[in-house]
Design goal:
This protein is α/β, with parallel strands linked by helices. The chain has 14 helices and 17 strands. The chain has helices at residues 24-39, 47-55, 58-68, 91-101, 116-128, 135-139, 150-157, 169-176, 200-204, 208-222, 245-263, 268-284, 350-359, 386-389; strands at residues 6-7, 73-76, 79-83, 105-109, 141-145, 162-166, 185-189, 193-199, 233-239, 290-295, 299-304, 320-326, 340-346, 367-370, 380-381, 384-385, 391-394. The strands form four sheets. Strands 10-11-12-9-8-13-14 form a seven-stranded mixed β-sheet, sandwiched between helices. A six-stranded mixed β-sheet has the order 1-5-4-3-6-7, sandwiched between helices. Helix 13 (350-359) links the parallel strand 13 (340-346) and strand 14 (367-370). The protein is globular, with a radius of gyration of 22 Å.
Length: 397
């Protein structure tokens, strides 16, 4: 194998046997990892690590196990090869736990980009695996790191029982050219588009503290991942026909600006990229009537007079947002397609949003969550129940 492949935790996988999904030792491992991460002082600097640690705690795993509630007898598929994105530092950890809780051995490719979060989590996993109680888990899981290399990807793909690909459309298409065994399954998480829906009337009734809370939650959904996460909103839609709506919108963006200035690091390269994106939009988006407003270099608002059917092709990052106002949710049926993943919301009953998707038989929107929960990844993702997708039924009659 090429020299640019490195094993991060004690080398290759030895022999292994699969588990039943949510086997007690797998749940114990997840909870112990959670406790280990939450005990580290350096973890407190990284909200994405804290979110992951909170997610894999025992109480949440018990919830997942109850919801799984499978009447069938199941075992893991075997060995799962995870190809995780280079621009989301904690995604690999979720993917690993998904595969593990489903009962599988795992080879996890961590981001080739250097992230402190990745280093902290890998170190914590290594520490937990020193416990003899988890010896079997240690022997059936590997964490690897390498730059893009089809030879290495082909090697691990050649003997996996399942392959999970996280990344952009081009990454998914490129990896799919590399074969897997005929019985292996493949799950891909390609480019998706997410947006935020705010009820103007509900927003107008928020007091100062709740406006700040909303802005903080929106910040967490977007700026923490530079809008690179597939579930981070690129578009903000205001619903309603209030008097003086611009005053309400400006209030939201102004409060958000204060939070961004306090909490967000904005190096020059991000400023240049964002400004280049603005120029590109102005020159190329000829069928989109826009008005532009910026809050220093921190927030760009591209206000749309109408929402084009190809709005999912317009993506911002580093605080570049598209914005529109509509009178009814029915207008959204004109542009929502299978690319749409997460809808974050304020001022709606979750039942009415659920009914909107179901009754209109929309091909997109897999997740509907309140503002602030966009990045709360779960074992049901992009419409897949991964615990069931990564395990097999033992059918006995």
């Amino acid at each position: 194998m090429k020299k640019n492949l490195s094993y991060l935790i004690d080398g290759k996988i030895s022999t292994y046997q699969v588990f039943q999904p949510y086997d007690p030792v797998l749940c114990d491992f997840s909870d112990t990892l959670s406790k280990t991460l939450r005990s580290l002082k350096e973890t407190k600097k990284y909200p994405d690590i804290l979110t992951f640690a909170f997610w894999c705690r025992r109480a949440n795993i018990k919830r997942l196990k109850r919801n799984f509630n499978s009447s069938e007898k199941r075992l893991g598929l075997g060995l799962i090869f995870h190809i995780t994105p280079s621009n989301v530092p904690v995604n690999f950890a979720y993917s690993f736990i998904f595969g593990l809780l489903s009962g599988n051995a795992n080879v996890v490719r961590v981001p080739s980009t250097e992230y402190k979060q990745t280093e902290i989590i890998v170190s914590a996993i290594k520490k937990v695996l020193k416990d003899n109680k988890f010896k079997e888990i240690k022997n059936m899981n590997s964490f690897i790191k390498y730059e893009k290399d089809d030879e290495i990807t082909s090697y691990f793909s050649s003997f996996c029982d399942g392959r999970i690909i996280w990344g952009g459309d081009q990454t998914v298409l490129s990896v799919r050219k590399i074969p897997v065994p005929v019985k292996a399954i493949e799950i891909s998480f390609p480019d998706r588009y997410s947006f935020c829906l705010i009820n103007l009337k509900s927003f107008s009734q928020l007091d100062k503290d709740n406006v700040k809370k909303l802005a903080q939650n929106f910040y967490n959904d977007t700026f923490l991942m530079d809008q690179n996460a597939c579930s981070s909103p690129h578009l903000v839609i205001w619903l309603g026909n209030m008097k003086h709506p611009e005053e309400l919108k400006s209030l939201f963006w102004s409060v958000l600006e204060k939070i961004v200035r306090q909490q967000y690091e904005l190096p020059a390269i991000k400023v240049v990229d964002k400004y280049s994106k603005l120029l590109s939009d102005v020159m190329s988006a000829k069928d989109v009537e826009t008005k532009f407003k910026n809050y220093g270099n921190f927030i760009y608002r591209m206000k749309l007079n109408s929402i084009p059917v190809h709005i999912d092709e317009l993506k911002g990052k580093y605080g570049f947002f598209y914005e529109a106002q509509i009178k009814s949710m029915e207008h959204m049926t004109n542009f929502i397609n299978s690319k749409y993943q997460t809808l974050t919301y304020l001022g709606f009953q979750k039942e009415e949003l659920e009914d909107f998707v179901i009754k209109n038989r929309l091909s997109g929107i897999d997740r509907i969550v309140p503002v602030g929960q966009a990045l709360d990844i779960d074992i049901i993702w992009d419409g897949y129940d991964l615990a069931k997708s990564l395990s097999r039924i033992i059918d006995v009659r």
